[in-house]
Specification:
2 copies of one chain form a homodimer.
Chain A lengths: L1 H6 L4 E5 L13 E6 L4 H10 L4 E4 L3 H9 L3 E6 L2 E2 L21 E5 L3 H10 L4 E5 L4 H10 L3 E6 L8 H14 L5 E2 L1 H14 L2 H7 L1 H8 L3 H7 L9 E4 L2 E4 L5 H9 L1
Parallel strand pairs in A: 1-8, 1-9, 2-7, 2-8, 3-6, 4-6
Antiparallel strand pairs in A: 4-5, 10-11
Helix pairs in contact in A: 6-7
């Protein structure tokens, strides 16, 4: 029995504080959670909460424009602002529309979509989307997987940011004790979340990204992005696009995707 | 006056949590503090506290052996252990010897010397050595410089570690309010230090590097490395070697070095 226990694969919970550190991980050993709280992964969850059929995350504005030309709805954000000529920017509120249901959406953002593609290129076992918006759904699903987890913070242009670190810490604090080990980054994030939790707003107000957003008058976005469990969704990256595993027709869409 | 104030260069306090993130900074804008608490920068401070004349940090064991062959004292550590055939490993206690006085030392370590050379190659304005051992001397000197500061954590093999993050946070907490801005990494480190401060030992015990050191029976080293202001020294990197700016003969050694 003792030997059997040691032979069992250890499940680890690790945190990658910015995509610049991703090459230091053996990405193929993990289920990767892409985190971009302000605002890409929050907005993705909101879009799925409004029953969008799929989201195709692309790296460049040009790719996004090409998919729009093919008839998809398209969202493009750069440096916190909506790129002119697209249907949506990056505000979660712009996705709160009933007419999104059943539509296919293309999306590019400054940090989040880039982090997702890096994780894909480095061979992540699975890639899912995390935000406070779907935190409990995410945590439950992660625990049901028999794998190590890498919480990948998108940060801001290869640097760490507070809000993604806080979310990674919130996940580590909630489910970390179910894992065999955490790395030092998970410990730092967990402690940071714990300190920030009682005074979350104050922390966001100190964050460099918050300052950028406030400059753009997006305080309401920030407040929404901090709210837990708004939607029971879990976007997963499959064959180049995100599908919601919690959608009633997921099995059907998944089957179509893998054909 | 308003214009004059805006034209004045802003002094920023930034934290680089691992050398892997160093290329994301314009290193030439900063005075860089190299941090490797367990144990390279701590040991360097101890050696200068025992009046070593200079320390030449080198990247490889081979370079270190070559300098030893030329008659220098030499210290080499890899993965926490002393490399056989050298005079010292990386324990601060091994440098507490009166016969170090006036000697020239060559040194290579797993993480700290590498971080120092990266900062040098990327054109740091000045490079100094920080540890709890010389923390107040370091802080006073930093405040006297009219420049931005980058606290460079050596980490462990390109990953973040707790003890370097805690020290960066301790510095940010002590002198951060004198700077015009801090980045999100500095905020995270500062908060982490604050949480860790009351229970420092417990934090170190969770750290992955501590676990490695305990395995090597080095608890006494860890205790020493956490102690503040043991020596009034401030090593600076000049012309390929470290000199102690607080040494009575520093001006003389410096003049010789720049000739």
């Amino acid at each position: 029995l003792y030997i059997a226990k040691n032979l069992m694969e250890k499940r680890r919970l690790h945190v990658c504080l910015t995509p610049a550190l991703l090459p230091t991980f053996n990405v193929e050993e993990y289920v990767v959670v892409v985190i971009d709280i302000l605002r890409a992964t929050t907005s993705m969850c909101v879009a799925f909460g409004h029953k969008v059929a799929s989201i195709t995350p692309v790296e460049t504005v040009e790719e996004c424009a090409a998919l729009k030309a093919q008839g998809m709805l398209a969202a493009a954000e750069r440096n916190g602002e909506m790129v002119p000529g697209f249907d949506f920017g990056n505000s979660p509120f712009s996705y709160m529309k009933p007419d999104l249901a059943g539509k296919h959406l293309a999306l590019t953002t400054t940090n989040g979509t880039l982090a997702l593609h890096q994780a894909h290129q480095l061979g992540a076992q699975k890639i899912v989307i995390g935000a406070f918006t779907n935190m409990s759904t995410l945590n439950q699903w992660l625990l049901a997987q028999n794998t190590s987890v890498l919480l990948l913070c998108s940060g801001w242009k290869q640097r760490l940011n507070m809000e993604d670190t806080i979310f990674a810490g919130a996940v580590a604090r909630t489910i970390g004790h179910h894992y065999d080990s955490m790395d030092d980054a998970a410990q730092v994030a967990r402690t940071f979340f714990w300190s920030a939790n009682l005074q979350k707003r104050r922390f966001f107000e100190r964050s460099s990204h918050y300052t950028r957003l406030v400059h753009l008058n997006l305080q309401e976005d920030v407040k929404f992005c901090m709210k837990k469990d708004t939607f029971h969704v879990l976007p997963i990256f499959e064959n180049g696009r995100l599908l919601d595993m919690m959608a009633p027709d997921y099995a059907q869409l998944h089957a179509a995707a893998v054909q």
